[in-house]
Specification:
single chain; 252 residues; alpha+beta; 7-stranded mixed β-sheet; 4-stranded antiparallel β-sheet; 11 strands; globular; binds biotinyl-5-AMP
Protein backbone atom coordinates (compact mmCIF):
# COMPACT_ATOMS: atom_id res chain seq x y z
CA UNK A 1 0.00 0.00 0.00
CA UNK A 2 2.74 2.38 1.03
CA UNK A 3 4.85 1.43 -1.99
CA UNK A 4 1.90 1.93 -4.37
CA UNK A 5 1.30 5.39 -2.95
CA UNK A 6 4.97 6.29 -3.20
CA UNK A 7 5.05 5.01 -6.76
CA UNK A 8 2.03 7.14 -7.70
CA UNK A 9 3.60 10.24 -6.23
CA UNK A 10 6.83 9.60 -8.05
CA UNK A 11 4.93 8.98 -11.26
CA UNK A 12 3.09 12.26 -10.90
CA UNK A 13 6.27 14.21 -10.28
CA UNK A 14 8.29 12.61 -13.03
CA UNK A 15 5.45 12.65 -15.54
CA UNK A 16 5.22 16.40 -15.03
CA UNK A 17 8.95 17.04 -15.24
CA UNK A 18 9.35 15.02 -18.43
CA UNK A 19 6.02 16.01 -20.01
CA UNK A 20 7.61 18.44 -22.46
CA UNK A 21 9.62 15.70 -24.10
CA UNK A 22 6.94 13.01 -24.04
CA UNK A 23 5.91 11.86 -27.50
CA UNK A 24 4.79 8.27 -26.80
CA UNK A 25 1.27 8.00 -28.11
CA UNK A 26 0.48 4.36 -28.58
CA UNK A 27 0.85 3.61 -24.85
CA UNK A 28 -0.06 5.13 -21.48
CA UNK A 29 3.45 6.32 -20.59
CA UNK A 30 5.01 6.55 -17.10
CA UNK A 31 8.59 7.42 -16.16
CA UNK A 32 10.06 6.64 -12.72
CA UNK A 33 13.40 8.05 -11.56
CA UNK A 34 14.18 4.71 -9.94
CA UNK A 35 12.32 1.54 -8.98
CA UNK A 36 13.26 -2.00 -7.85
CA UNK A 37 11.84 -3.60 -11.02
CA UNK A 38 9.65 -2.13 -13.73
CA UNK A 39 7.90 -5.54 -13.90
CA UNK A 40 6.52 -5.03 -10.39
CA UNK A 41 5.92 -1.30 -10.88
CA UNK A 42 3.86 -2.09 -14.00
CA UNK A 43 1.76 -4.63 -12.10
CA UNK A 44 1.06 -2.10 -9.31
CA UNK A 45 0.32 0.77 -11.69
CA UNK A 46 -1.95 -1.34 -13.88
CA UNK A 47 -3.99 -2.36 -10.84
CA UNK A 48 -4.17 1.25 -9.74
CA UNK A 49 -5.24 2.41 -13.21
CA UNK A 50 -7.99 -0.21 -13.49
CA UNK A 51 -9.87 -0.07 -16.78
CA UNK A 52 -9.83 3.71 -17.13
CA UNK A 53 -7.57 3.47 -20.20
CA UNK A 54 -7.58 0.73 -22.84
CA UNK A 55 -4.00 1.34 -24.01
CA UNK A 56 -0.98 -0.71 -23.00
CA UNK A 57 0.71 0.75 -19.91
CA UNK A 58 4.43 1.48 -20.28
CA UNK A 59 6.66 2.02 -17.22
CA UNK A 60 10.28 2.97 -17.68
CA UNK A 61 13.21 4.00 -15.54
CA UNK A 62 16.90 4.71 -15.91
CA UNK A 63 17.76 2.81 -12.72
CA UNK A 64 16.48 -0.46 -11.29
CA UNK A 65 17.71 -1.72 -7.95
CA UNK A 66 16.40 -5.28 -8.31
CA UNK A 67 16.00 -6.05 -11.99
CA UNK A 68 15.33 -9.63 -12.95
CA UNK A 69 15.93 -11.89 -15.92
CA UNK A 70 14.40 -15.28 -16.68
CA UNK A 71 14.28 -18.18 -14.20
CA UNK A 72 15.43 -16.24 -11.14
CA UNK A 73 18.48 -14.73 -12.84
CA UNK A 74 19.26 -11.07 -12.24
CA UNK A 75 19.42 -8.11 -14.58
CA UNK A 76 21.89 -5.57 -13.26
CA UNK A 77 22.81 -1.97 -13.92
CA UNK A 78 25.75 -0.05 -12.53
CA UNK A 79 23.80 3.10 -11.75
CA UNK A 80 21.73 5.63 -13.64
CA UNK A 81 21.35 5.81 -17.38
CA UNK A 82 20.43 2.36 -18.69
CA UNK A 83 16.94 1.56 -19.95
CA UNK A 84 14.53 -0.63 -18.03
CA UNK A 85 11.06 -0.75 -19.51
CA UNK A 86 7.94 -2.85 -19.00
CA UNK A 87 4.94 -2.61 -21.27
CA UNK A 88 1.81 -4.20 -19.78
CA UNK A 89 -0.78 -5.45 -22.25
CA UNK A 90 -4.13 -5.97 -20.46
CA UNK A 91 -5.79 -9.23 -21.47
CA UNK A 92 -8.37 -7.36 -23.58
CA UNK A 93 -5.57 -6.57 -26.06
CA UNK A 94 -5.14 -9.65 -28.28
CA UNK A 95 -1.47 -10.49 -28.83
CA UNK A 96 -1.48 -13.30 -31.36
CA UNK A 97 0.40 -15.53 -31.94
CA UNK A 98 1.29 -15.80 -28.28
CA UNK A 99 3.99 -18.49 -28.58
CA UNK A 100 5.96 -16.22 -30.89
CA UNK A 101 5.55 -13.12 -28.72
CA UNK A 102 9.10 -13.10 -27.28
CA UNK A 103 10.53 -13.36 -30.80
CA UNK A 104 8.36 -10.50 -32.07
CA UNK A 105 9.46 -8.35 -29.12
CA UNK A 106 13.07 -8.95 -30.19
CA UNK A 107 12.42 -7.60 -33.68
CA UNK A 108 10.55 -4.57 -32.32
CA UNK A 109 13.44 -3.77 -29.96
CA UNK A 110 16.10 -4.12 -32.62
CA UNK A 111 14.11 -1.90 -35.00
CA UNK A 112 13.64 0.76 -32.30
CA UNK A 113 17.37 0.76 -31.52
CA UNK A 114 18.05 1.28 -35.22
CA UNK A 115 21.73 0.31 -35.46
CA UNK A 116 22.85 -1.97 -38.30
CA UNK A 117 25.46 -3.65 -36.07
CA UNK A 118 22.76 -5.24 -33.90
CA UNK A 119 21.61 -8.85 -34.26
CA UNK A 120 19.29 -11.22 -32.42
CA UNK A 121 20.33 -14.42 -30.67
CA UNK A 122 17.63 -17.02 -30.14
CA UNK A 123 15.28 -16.65 -28.47
CA UNK A 124 15.52 -12.90 -27.95
CA UNK A 125 18.83 -11.50 -26.71
CA UNK A 126 19.99 -8.46 -28.61
CA UNK A 127 23.70 -8.52 -29.39
CA UNK A 128 26.07 -5.77 -30.41
CA UNK A 129 29.23 -7.23 -31.96
CA UNK A 130 28.92 -10.37 -29.82
CA UNK A 131 28.10 -8.65 -26.50
CA UNK A 132 24.61 -8.69 -24.95
CA UNK A 133 23.22 -5.18 -25.15
CA UNK A 134 19.56 -5.91 -24.35
CA UNK A 135 17.53 -8.64 -22.67
CA UNK A 136 13.81 -9.41 -22.84
CA UNK A 137 11.53 -10.94 -20.23
CA UNK A 138 7.87 -11.87 -20.70
CA UNK A 139 5.64 -12.55 -17.69
CA UNK A 140 1.89 -12.97 -17.17
CA UNK A 141 -0.32 -12.72 -14.07
CA UNK A 142 -3.73 -13.47 -15.56
CA UNK A 143 -4.63 -9.75 -15.85
CA UNK A 144 -2.02 -8.82 -18.41
CA UNK A 145 1.10 -9.84 -20.27
CA UNK A 146 4.16 -7.88 -19.15
CA UNK A 147 6.98 -7.39 -21.62
CA UNK A 148 10.21 -6.28 -19.94
CA UNK A 149 13.15 -4.88 -21.88
CA UNK A 150 16.53 -3.88 -20.46
CA UNK A 151 19.02 -2.01 -22.65
CA UNK A 152 22.57 -1.05 -21.64
CA UNK A 153 22.86 2.58 -22.65
CA UNK A 154 25.16 4.21 -20.10
CA UNK A 155 27.08 1.18 -18.85
CA UNK A 156 27.66 -2.48 -19.58
CA UNK A 157 27.90 -4.27 -16.22
CA UNK A 158 30.41 -7.02 -15.55
CA UNK A 159 28.69 -10.37 -16.09
CA UNK A 160 29.91 -13.30 -13.95
CA UNK A 161 31.70 -16.14 -15.77
CA UNK A 162 30.53 -18.75 -13.21
CA UNK A 163 27.44 -19.40 -11.09
CA UNK A 164 23.74 -19.07 -11.91
CA UNK A 165 24.22 -15.59 -13.38
CA UNK A 166 27.08 -16.54 -15.71
CA UNK A 167 26.67 -15.28 -19.23
CA UNK A 168 28.32 -13.69 -22.22
CA UNK A 169 29.93 -10.27 -21.85
CA UNK A 170 27.65 -7.23 -21.79
CA UNK A 171 27.83 -4.47 -24.41
CA UNK A 172 26.31 -0.98 -24.49
CA UNK A 173 24.70 1.20 -27.11
CA UNK A 174 25.06 4.88 -26.22
CA UNK A 175 21.95 7.05 -26.33
CA UNK A 176 19.36 8.84 -24.23
CA UNK A 177 17.60 6.35 -21.94
CA UNK A 178 14.32 8.26 -21.93
CA UNK A 179 14.14 8.53 -25.73
CA UNK A 180 15.15 4.90 -26.27
CA UNK A 181 12.57 3.67 -23.75
CA UNK A 182 9.89 5.72 -25.50
CA UNK A 183 10.86 4.50 -28.90
CA UNK A 184 10.69 0.83 -27.82
CA UNK A 185 7.40 1.41 -25.95
CA UNK A 186 5.93 3.11 -29.00
CA UNK A 187 7.10 0.27 -31.24
CA UNK A 188 5.49 -2.31 -28.96
CA UNK A 189 2.29 -0.26 -28.67
CA UNK A 190 2.06 0.18 -32.46
CA UNK A 191 2.71 -3.51 -33.03
CA UNK A 192 -0.09 -4.48 -30.64
CA UNK A 193 -2.54 -2.50 -32.79
CA UNK A 194 -1.58 -4.40 -35.94
CA UNK A 195 -2.68 -7.83 -37.01
CA UNK A 196 0.31 -10.15 -36.93
CA UNK A 197 0.80 -13.71 -38.10
CA UNK A 198 3.34 -16.46 -37.50
CA UNK A 199 4.85 -16.21 -40.99
CA UNK A 200 5.67 -12.53 -40.66
CA UNK A 201 7.18 -13.04 -37.17
CA UNK A 202 9.38 -15.85 -38.46
CA UNK A 203 10.45 -13.90 -41.56
CA UNK A 204 11.24 -10.72 -39.59
CA UNK A 205 13.04 -12.57 -36.81
CA UNK A 206 15.06 -14.70 -39.23
CA UNK A 207 16.26 -11.58 -41.06
CA UNK A 208 17.80 -10.17 -37.88
CA UNK A 209 19.67 -13.25 -36.65
CA UNK A 210 23.36 -13.91 -37.15
CA UNK A 211 22.99 -17.43 -38.57
CA UNK A 212 26.78 -17.88 -38.69
CA UNK A 213 27.15 -17.56 -34.90
CA UNK A 214 27.27 -20.81 -32.93
CA UNK A 215 25.07 -21.08 -29.85
CA UNK A 216 26.32 -22.46 -26.55
CA UNK A 217 23.81 -24.60 -24.67
CA UNK A 218 23.53 -23.38 -21.10
CA UNK A 219 23.13 -26.81 -19.50
CA UNK A 220 25.91 -28.71 -21.26
CA UNK A 221 28.21 -26.10 -22.81
CA UNK A 222 27.76 -27.84 -26.21
CA UNK A 223 28.14 -25.63 -29.29
CA UNK A 224 25.38 -25.97 -31.89
CA UNK A 225 24.69 -24.28 -35.23
CA UNK A 226 21.31 -22.59 -35.74
CA UNK A 227 19.57 -23.96 -38.84
CA UNK A 228 16.11 -22.41 -39.00
CA UNK A 229 13.17 -21.25 -36.90
CA UNK A 230 10.16 -23.59 -36.76
CA UNK A 231 6.58 -22.22 -36.98
CA UNK A 232 6.01 -22.69 -33.22
CA UNK A 233 9.11 -20.67 -32.26
CA UNK A 234 11.46 -23.59 -31.59
CA UNK A 235 14.89 -23.37 -33.17
CA UNK A 236 16.24 -26.20 -35.29
CA UNK A 237 19.98 -26.64 -34.58
CA UNK A 238 22.77 -28.94 -35.72
CA UNK A 239 25.16 -30.35 -33.11
CA UNK A 240 27.44 -33.33 -32.59
CA UNK A 241 24.41 -35.65 -32.27
CA UNK A 242 22.70 -34.41 -35.45
CA UNK A 243 19.74 -32.05 -35.82
CA UNK A 244 17.19 -31.28 -33.11
CA UNK A 245 14.75 -28.56 -32.09
CA UNK A 246 15.41 -26.40 -29.03
CA UNK A 247 12.77 -24.84 -26.82
CA UNK A 248 13.61 -21.51 -25.17
CA UNK A 249 15.91 -20.91 -22.20
CA UNK A 250 18.78 -23.32 -22.78
CA UNK A 251 21.40 -20.91 -24.01
CA UNK A 252 24.05 -18.62 -22.59
C1 LIG B 1 17.10 -11.48 -19.73
O1 LIG B 1 17.10 -12.58 -18.91
O2 LIG B 1 17.95 -11.19 -20.53
C2 LIG B 1 15.90 -10.58 -19.49
C3 LIG B 1 16.29 -9.27 -18.90
C4 LIG B 1 15.08 -8.38 -18.74
C5 LIG B 1 15.41 -7.13 -18.00
C6 LIG B 1 14.25 -6.19 -18.00
S1 LIG B 1 14.70 -4.61 -17.44
C7 LIG B 1 13.05 -4.14 -17.39
C8 LIG B 1 12.31 -5.31 -16.79
N1 LIG B 1 12.35 -5.25 -15.35
C9 LIG B 1 13.00 -6.31 -14.84
O3 LIG B 1 13.15 -6.52 -13.62
N2 LIG B 1 13.43 -7.10 -15.84
C10 LIG B 1 13.05 -6.59 -17.13
P1 LIG B 1 18.13 -13.78 -19.10
O4 LIG B 1 18.12 -14.25 -20.53
O5 LIG B 1 17.75 -14.76 -18.05
O6 LIG B 1 19.52 -13.14 -18.83
C11 LIG B 1 19.95 -12.82 -17.54
C12 LIG B 1 21.46 -12.94 -17.58
O7 LIG B 1 21.99 -11.87 -18.38
C13 LIG B 1 22.13 -12.80 -16.23
O8 LIG B 1 22.16 -14.05 -15.55
C14 LIG B 1 23.53 -12.32 -16.62
O9 LIG B 1 24.31 -13.38 -17.10
C15 LIG B 1 23.23 -11.43 -17.82
N3 LIG B 1 23.06 -10.01 -17.47
C16 LIG B 1 22.56 -9.45 -16.32
N4 LIG B 1 22.49 -8.12 -16.44
C17 LIG B 1 22.95 -7.82 -17.68
C18 LIG B 1 23.12 -6.61 -18.40
N5 LIG B 1 22.79 -5.42 -17.88
N6 LIG B 1 23.63 -6.69 -19.66
C19 LIG B 1 23.96 -7.87 -20.23
N7 LIG B 1 23.83 -9.05 -19.59
C20 LIG B 1 23.31 -9.02 -18.34
Amino acid sequence: MRRTHATSLLTLITTQTRAMTTTCRTVDWRWLETTPSTMDAAKDLLKERGDTDARPLAVATAHQTKGRGTRGRSWTDDGRGNVALTVAFPSEIPLAPITLLPLRVGTVVIDALNDSRLSLKWPNDVLLEGGKVAGILVESDGNAIYVGVGVNVASAPAVPSAGPDRGRRAAKIPGDAFAIAQSIADGLGAWSQDRDDATSVITDWSARVDWAADLELRETGELVKPVRLLPDGRLKVRGAGGERALVADYLL
